[in-house]
Amino acid sequence: LMELPSFLVMAVFLLSGQHSRSGYAWVPFALWLFHYANRCFVFPLRMRQNPRGMPLAIALMAISFNLVNAFINGWWLANQSAGRFGPEWLARPRVWIGLILFADGLCINWISDHMLINLRKRGESGYTLPRGFLFEYVTAPNLLGEIVEWLGFALLAWNLPALCFFAWT
Q1: Distance between CA atoms of 67 and 143, rounded to whole angstroms?
Q2: Fewest CB atoms less than 10 Å from the CB: which of 97, 120, 126, 162?
Q3: What is the DSSP letter of 91?
């Protein structure tokens, strides 16, 4: 539920935006929606339920962040991107580097999430350290994947809201 505002707000801007479907502006929208479709609908179904729950304040802060972040990114893509996402956009190296980074970050995030979800067998409790993959080099490769992903998005979208999202991440 905390991630749902990002998906819904961006979908509204894609469907109603002045420039959201012109040229290749749909590409950053599609990447965003693909990421958040996983975060909102797929990932929660894969997680094991935490009996301790989560503090309401944390959930409300996440919802607030996602509303603001999706609004500024969606508004810019839908209303300020006129002429920026034409065929020449696809020829820019930073766009392809951004797409590669986004895909790499997504893969890192998904693999790490999968490893964390399957860290303990059902019924097991206690603290367990993940081993293998990027866990040998960084503490939280799932978060590293998000950083790489949103760096890629910032490069390909090339606007202040996307850069802000990367910096916040």
Answers
A1: 20
A2: 126
A3: T
Whether pTM exceeds 0.70: yes
Instruction: Provide the pLDDT for residue 137.
Output: 96
123-160 burial by CB neighbour count: b if 16+ within 10 A, else e? eeeeeeebeeebbeeeeebbebbbbbbbbbbbbbbbbe
C-alpha to C-alpha distance for 124 and 128, rounded to whole angstroms = 10
Cβ contacts of 169 within 8 Å, gap of 6 or more: 146, 147, 150
Comparing CA positions, the residue from 156, 95, 152 lying closest to residue 169 is 152
∠4-76-93 over CA atoms, to 5°? 100
Phi and psi at residue 73, to the nearest 5°:
-70, -45
Dist. CA 25–CA 85, nearest whole Å = 5
How much is the pLDDT for 50? 66
Please, what sign has the CA dihedral across residues 161, 6, 34, 25? negative
Residues 105 and 150: beta-carbon distance below 8 Å: yes
